[in-house]
Write a structure and sequence with these properties.
The protein has one domain: Arc Repressor Mutant, subunit A (Orthogonal Bundle). The longest helix has 25 residues. The protein has a three-stranded antiparallel β-sheet. The protein is of the alpha+beta class and about 110 residues long. The relative contact order is 0.16. The chain is globular. It has four helices and three strands. α1 packs across α2 and α1 packs across α3.
Length: about 110
C-alpha cells in the first residue's frame, strides 16, 4: 500500500533536481514527475518549491534554462545541468552518501 507523498526540504530538493537533470534536459513539470516516479511515488515536489529551487540553481550557475516546445507542443522552459552543476552534484552526492550511511549506523545501534 502506498503512503502519502512526502515533501522535500530545500537542500535535498536541489540535489534531486540536479540528479534528474544529469540524465537529460527537462522542463519543470517533467522534473517533478520524474522525481515522483523514480521515488516509487513517495516524493512529491510542489510547484511552489520546484520553481524557486530551479531559479536558485540557475542563479548559482548549476543549471541553465532555454525555451523550447514540450511533448504536447506547449512552450516550456527546459533546464539542463552545467559543468559546474555536475561537479557540485558529484561532491554533494558523496557527502549525502557518507551522511546517510552514518545516520543509518546510529539508527541501527544497540
Amino acid at each position: 500500500m502506498m503512503g502519502k507523498p512526502t515533501e522535500l526540504v530545500q537542500g535535498t530538493l536541489d540535489l534531486l533536481i540536479l540528479r534528474i537533470l544529469a540524465l537529460e534536459p527537462m522542463h519543470g513539470w517533467g522534473i517533478a514527475q520524474r522525481i515522483h516516479l523514480v521515488s516509487r511515488e513517495v516524493l512529491q515536489v510542489r510547484q511552489g518549491a520546484l520553481y524557486p529551487a530551479l531559479q536558485r540553481l540557475e542563479a548559482q550557475g548549476w543549471v541553465r534554462a532555454a525555451w523550447g516546445d514540450s511533448e504536447n507542443n506547449r512552450r516550456a522552459k527546459f533546464y539542463s545541468l552545467t559543468r559546474p552543476g555536475r561537479a557540485y552534484l558529484e561532491r554533494e552526492r558523496d557527502h549525502w552518501e557518507r551522511l546517510s550511511s552514518a545516520i543509518g549506523l546510529v539508527l541501527r545501534c544497540d
